[in-house]
Specification:
Elements: E1 13-17, H1 24-43, H2 47-52, E2 57-61, H3 64-76, E3 79-83, H4 100-105, E4 110-113, H5 116-121, H6 126-138, E5 142-147, H7 151-155, H8 159-170, E6 182-186, H9 200-218, E7 227-230, H10 238-242, E8 249-252, H11 259-277
Parallel strand pairs: 1-2, 1-8, 2-3, 3-4, 4-5, 5-6, 6-7, 7-8
Helix pairs in contact: 1-3, 1-11, 6-8, 8-9
The protein binds phosphoenolpyruvate.
Length: 279
């Protein structure tokens, strides 16, 4: 008889979205301070914890111009860098655009796709988001797809319909084999950059729904896909999300700009990762 298979344990991801912030000098200073915390924290770990944390992921999404200058420091500290957006085009007469393969060339490992600020301010439709995700995966990057409802949609009882539409359109061309390079972030639009973080119970329900839809689309490979929460996360409220078994981390905007605060959140993420993988 086949032994029952172990449930797949997903790594915890703690990600910073710097949005349109940080000069080159500010970013380098942020990195120096954060890496000093990181080195000190990691030095205090037992060899077993250090081994288990090799799969814990710290991600930073700076503006494109900062990726190359930060690359060496990030590589040494095992921090993965990503682009906040990429073009839906590959090459050609598209003034101002930057292609997924170009951001990979300067050292990005990840790209965000479908951030609510891109959808809301720049009018990106689900179809555009799908094209961008395709470019990201074709370029060999890891893609983090963001989904979430507006307040109006939530109040109208349309949250599940919106999440299903966003997921099924964006993931239409994605092969189950791509699941290992995919991550999702549930970011209710009304919680992003507003200081009004979503109640963890509401997030648990939305995350369970998202996991179900993902499984319908990708089958059993859906279990490889980490799901993060984003929306006014800070060191005080993060743990309330990290303890949810449907979630695998957080995407943090405003509160990630302070390297000390981000370190506090990375420490919480690392502790939850260790608990997940120990025993
Ligand atoms: C974000 O930018 O993805 C985000 C969640 O921002 P904030 O943490 O500032 O709400």
């Amino acid at each position: 008889m086949k032994p029952p298979s172990q449930p797949f344990r997903r790594s915890v991801h703690i990600a910073a979205n710097w949005k349109l912030n940080q000069s080159r000098a500010e970013a380098a200073a942020w990195m120096r301070e954060f890496v000093a915390h990181l080195r000190q924290g990691w030095d205090e770990l037992s060899p077993e914890s250090a081994r288990l944390l090799q799969t814990f992921r710290i991600l930073i999404f700076p503006t494109l111009t900062l990726i190359e200058p930060l690359q060496e420091m990030a590589r040494r500290a095992r921090i993965e860098l990503g682009a906040q957006d990429v073009s839906r085009f590959e090459r050609g007469a598209y003034t101002g655009e930057v292609a997924a393969w170009q951001v990979r060339e300067v050292g990005a490992v990840w790209a965000l796709v479908g951030h609510s600020e891109r959808r809301r301010i720049f009018g990106e439709s689900d179809e555009v988001v799908a094209e961008k995700l395709g470019r990201v995966l074709d370029a060999g990057l890891r893609g983090m797809l963001l989904v979430g409802e507006t307040l109006k949609e939530r109040e109208a009882g349309r949250t599940e319909e919106v999440l299903r539409r966003q997921l099924s359109t964006a993931l239409e061309g994605v092969e189950p084999a791509d699941a290992i390079r995919l991550a999702l972030a549930y970011e209710p639009v009304w919680a992003v950059g507003t200081g009004r973080n979503a109640d963890p119970e509401l997030v648990r329900e939305a995350a369970a729904f998202i996991r179900g839809v993902l499984e319908e689309i990708l089958g059993e490979d859906a279990r490889f896909v980490p799901l993060l929460y984003g929306g006014s996360v800070n060191p005080e409220n993060l743990l309330g999300y990290l303890v949810l078994e449907q979630l695998d981390g957080a995407l943090i905007g405003g509160a990630s700009l302070d390297p000390g605060d981000f370190w506090e959140m990375v420490k919480l993420g690392a502790a939850v990762h260790l608990r997940r993988f120990q025993g």
